[in-house]
Amino acid sequence: MVIRIFVFVLFSLSVIGYFMPVEQRAKKDADKDRPLLTFVDSTMYTLNTDSMNRIIFTKEAIRYKNRDVMHDGSLMLKSIDNDNQEITDTLLADLIVKRGDNFKFINDVQFTRNDYMTLNTNELLYNAETKIATNTLPFEGTYFNNYLEGENMYLDLNNYYMNALKTHFEIEIEKKGN
Fold this sequence. Notes:
By secondary structure, the chain is an alpha+beta fold. 16% of the residues lie in helices and 57% in strands.
């Protein structure tokens, strides 16, 4: 009698286990972070009514549901200043994560503005709508061939304003002969 009850319980558990939706749970977790598109050696142009203002070059670009991940990429921004001079900002990084208008540049980040300003760091956050770049890690760079370094940078590309903590700026002064 005990053996019949034991066999009946095992049979009941196996029937219940057979009809449980185990695959649904596994499928939900698998689809959660699956790439939608993958591009190799890609170039993306952003156009407005006036001109082409943003170009992104990447070795590999992966589009997910809520973000874009780009490996070995560069972001080139083109704009015009108050004196109608063309400004070209270039951001290079090993990894770029884009969520909406927010870009996060990670590992070996290099920022260049025309030929007079460079910044090197390991992290840079950039908002394409406000054109403001920030970071929380140390950085170093040059400004008109003068050396600068610091931490926690705030860079407003619209108003040509830069703020940083623990800054060190070395100005090279050339002596003029009599």
